[in-house]
Amino acid sequence: MITEKPITTTKPTINSLCIYCGSSPGRLEAYALAAVSLAEALVSRNIKLVYGGAGIGIMGRLADNVLKLGGEVIGIIPKALAHKEVAHQNLTELHITQSMHERKMLMAKLADGFIALPGGIGTLEELFEIWTWAQLGFHKKPCGLLNIDGYYDWLIRFLDHALEEQFVKKHHHALLMVEKTPEVLLERFAKYQPPETKHWLGKNET
């Protein structure tokens, strides 16, 4: 039998956000420009950036612009990637972990919410894992998807299809906020009220 434990809902304070995004620049300049816009939005709200620690691709563009504007950037990267000179060398803080799993755990711990910009398989894996943790009741932090220039249109359609086919519940589907601009998404984050949810698994069961 599954034991369900209610979680008390409280409105979170957004002091830092974890941003998942590509280590490649992508085909369109719009993706990099979105990273610049998000950097501006974060700094204007005095929100720290927590991210994967790389100095390349969309990741590097995001970190560079937060730093350029006087914001704080916390990078978290596994040792294997750091040794390949992928790590950004000018961050406010750089944490080097032993594994990818440890990296994701620390990113989740240090952030008050999570946003995915355009990215590849790694970005999708990180987003879906943190969204799943919200579904399971492991955290009550907001999760968002920035759909830049239609990049995630097909993914959004698939998620709607999964809802229609009753593999995803409506209240779990609603946990992922989707917007086209950083400003609108951050406004939703600021007003976010975690829904009442229940623990389906204990952390020692994952």
Automatic annotation (TrEMBL):
**Record has Iron-sulfur as a keyword:** no
Q: Which GO terms describe its biological process?
A: cytokinin biosynthetic process
Q: What is its EC number?
A: 3.2.2.n1
One Pfam family name is Lysine_decarbox
Q: Gene3D superfamilies from the entry?
A: 3.40.50.450
Provide the family line: Belongs to the LOG family.
| PANTHER family, alphabetized | LOG FAMILY PROTEIN YJL055W
Q: What is this protein called?
A: Cytokinin riboside 5'-monophosphate phosphoribohydrolase
Organism this protein belongs to: Methyloglobulus morosus KoM1
